[in-house]
Structures are given as C-alpha cells and as structure tokens.
Amino acid sequence: MTNVFPPALSELIIALQCLPGVGPKSAQRSAFQLLERDRGGAQRLSQALAQAVSLLGHCPRCRMFSETGNICQICADPRRDATALVIVENPADIVAIENATDYRGMYFVLMGHLSPLDGIGPGQLGAQQLESRLDEAIKEVIIATGATIEGEATAHWVGEMARRHHGVHVTRIAHGVPVGGDLDYVDGTTLARAFSGRREIF
Amino acid sequence: MTNVFPPALSELIIALQCLPGVGPKSAQRSAFQLLERDRGGAQRLSQALAQAVSLLGHCPRCRMFSETGNICQICADPRRDATALVIVENPADIVAIENATDYRGMYFVLMGHLSPLDGIGPGQLGAQQLESRLDEAIKEVIIATGATIEGEATAHWVGEMARRHHGVHVTRIAHGVPVGGDLDYVDGTTLARAFSGRREIF
User: Fold this and answer.
1) A64 lies in a domain?
2) What pLDDT is attached to residue B39?
C-alpha cells in the first residue's frame, strides 16, 4: 500500500487500533475527524490516557480500579456494610448495581471469569485476595457474575470456596423473566430457569 | 449516577467520547480494556495524539495533512505529472486512488463537500487555494467527489469554476455497475446512470 500520509498521521492511525473494535478503516476515520474537527478533544484524550496509565492501579482490597497504592472509594467508606460482599466480573457491574439497587455493602471484582482456554484460572481472578477477604467478618457473599456458561462456572467456584472453606452464607442473584418481558418472547432456557426458580407469594 | 470510579478513570471515559461513534458504554469498555490489558498501547496512543496535534497541519498546495509549514509528500514529488489535478473530498480518497489506479498526478483535497445546511460553502472547501492551483499549468481536472447528492453538487461547482473561469479540461470519474456486480442486484439509479453513460466498444 502506498503511504501518502506524513509519519505522525500513520503513527496515530496505527496507535488508534489498540482500542477494542477499531480496525484500519475506522482508525483512519477517527484520526481525520480528530485532526480536522476536534484537536482540543485529541489533546484532552492524550492527557487523560497518560494520566490514567500513570495514576491508576487496582484497589488492594477489591481489585476495582483506584489510584495506585490507595484503596478505592467504596472500600474506604466507613458507612458501608462490611459484612456483605458482592462478587462481580467487571468494574462496570459495580456501577450497574449501585445505580439499580440500594445495596450499600462491599464488592470484589474478579476482572474476568474462569476461562481455561484463555489461560484465565483462579490465580488470574485474584483467588488469594478473595480468600483473605472471606476470612474477614463477611456474613453473606452475593454472587453477581454473568448468566453465561463462564459466569456460572465462576459462580460455582466462588460459591464453593466461600461456603466450604470459610463457612460464609452464599447467595446468587436471581435469573428469570426480565421485568417488562412477555413470556412468549423469552428464550426457553431463561423461562425454564424462571420456572424452576419460582417463589411462593401467598 | 453514582460515581464509583477514581477521577482519572472518569476523565478518561469522558475524553474517549471525542472519537466518532464512541458513546458512554463503549468509552467505558475501551478504558477498561486499555487499563487492564494494553497499557503500552494506551501510552503509545497518548504520545501519537500529542505528536499529531502538535506536528500536523495542512499542505498549503493541496490541503492534504502534512507537517505544519511543509508541502506534502505528493506535492513535493518532482516525478509527478503537474498538469493533472484530481479533486477529492477526503485524504482517504487519495489513498484509495493511489492504490487502485496508476494515476501519478497531483491532488486537491476539499476536506468535505458543499453542505449549506452545515454552513459548508466554497470558502470552507478551500475555493481560493483551488483557484490559485487552477491558474498554474493544469491541463485536466479530474473530479472524484462522491456519487452522493452533495458530491454531485460539489462536482458541479468545481467543474464550472475550472471550465468557465480557467478554461481547463474537466472530467468526472465514471459511475455505473461495479465490477463483479450482477445487473439485477444493482440499484435503479446506478443502472440508469450506467445506461445513459454507455460507451461504444466496436
């Protein structure tokens, strides 16, 4: 391919491809857009990236992103209930739970799910840190990993560890028909789980 | 929305939204991905952005991106035919033409197309620079703007200017059935243009 771009532009187009879902075409489009219409945004992004890389690490208690060496906002909050621990796969799940529920306990972020083929086992998911958390005054572990095969396998591993080795009460968030969902539009697996997980109401 | 992220992470998520097609959700996903799996890529992107913003401007002859103050690689190349000028909408179009054809003349990049509703008129498309280019020893202007309504309007404006005011020979790239295209899968407008633009072959 003939390269008619100046080196700084070619380098930018290659560098943009580190973003998930961005290939050569959309990287090119993004580069043109930034240079042509939003140089302020490009400058701000450059600084935000440099700052995030140098400042951010993981909270030593819950593995959430936090400024390196510091525990995160949630772990540091004394008003939170330190006896409940929600296990999630990603930091984004914490945001979802905080916004949708009135849960105000602690979290532990696995940063992924068990996936032996990708080389992700308990060690990569912070098993040691989690075990030492479970040794604290935790009364209930609420497992909120995804409703996927990997999420279920991960839930099983965490649940067994918490129950067997630490004697903690373990719960799993409910799976079933989404609120607002018509029964005949729900897939069979979900409906079967909703059925087998039915609760007495009277 | 409860903000449970450290400030550097929130700032990165906001800054990523300057990229075209990136909203809050995908910005969050990109930020996590970079911090979790590709800090080297993030650092490189940060530097590439800073460098591109500080180094890149437009070629004073053809409006292509080039290092500020310098004319671009193509305009500076003495082996190129300085009597032919292709008019394109975007820098990416130059790459496409260079790769697909054996054209080795000059280019002029409009950096957009006429779009009065968005406030883009001849002034924004470099009319003055284009006029001074046409005063040089140009023998043929090849208009390669898009086959859209705006592209056609732009082609009309450029063509008229070149022909009437500068007496230059003006051509337009052909529109018709794409190579490999089955006739009954081609849309009606394209087929009509292919039909009216038919050429004698014997």
Assistant:
1) no
2) 92
Q: Is residue B58 part of a domain?
A: no
pLDDT band of residue A1 (cuts 50, 70, 90) is very low
Q: Does B68 touch chain A (CB under 8 A)?
A: no
User: Pick from A62, A82, A84: which is nearest to A71 by CA?
Assistant: A62
- Residue A46, chain B, CB below 8 Å: the answer is yes
For residues A2 and B95, is the Cβ–Cβ distance under 8 A?
Answer: yes
What is the per-residue pLDDT across A39-90, written as a single tens digit (0 to 9) for each? 999 999 999 999 999 999 999 889 999 988 888 889 999 999 999 999 999 8
Chain A residues touching B92 at Cβ < 8 A: 28-29, 32
Q: What are φ and ψ of residue B83, in 5° steps?
A: -100, -5
**Tokens encoding A168:** 């903690």
Q: Is residue B42 part of a domain?
A: no
In a domain, B197, yes or no: no
Give whole-number Cα distances, A67 to A53, A55, A86, B6, in Å.
10, 5, 22, 7
Most B CBs within 10 Å, among A4, A10, A36, A44, to test the B interface: A4
Residue-number span of the structural domain to which B148 is assigned: 79-172
Q: What is the pLDDT of residues A104-127, one digit of tens each?
A: 999 999 988 999 898 889 988 989
**CATH number reported for the structural domain that contains residue B141 in this entry:** 3.40.1360.10
In the predicted model, what is the mean pLDDT of residues A128-142? 89
Q: In whole angstroms, give the CA distance from residue A78 to residue A35.
A: 46
CB neighbours of B44 closer than 8 A, spacing ≥ 6?
A: A15, A18
Q: Which of B20, B65, B74 sits opposite A35 (nearest CB)?
A: B65
Q: How is residue B8 written in tokens?
A: 């550097």
Interface of A with B in 103-162 (CB under 8 A): 111
Domain count, chain A: 1
**ipTM for this prediction:** 0.81
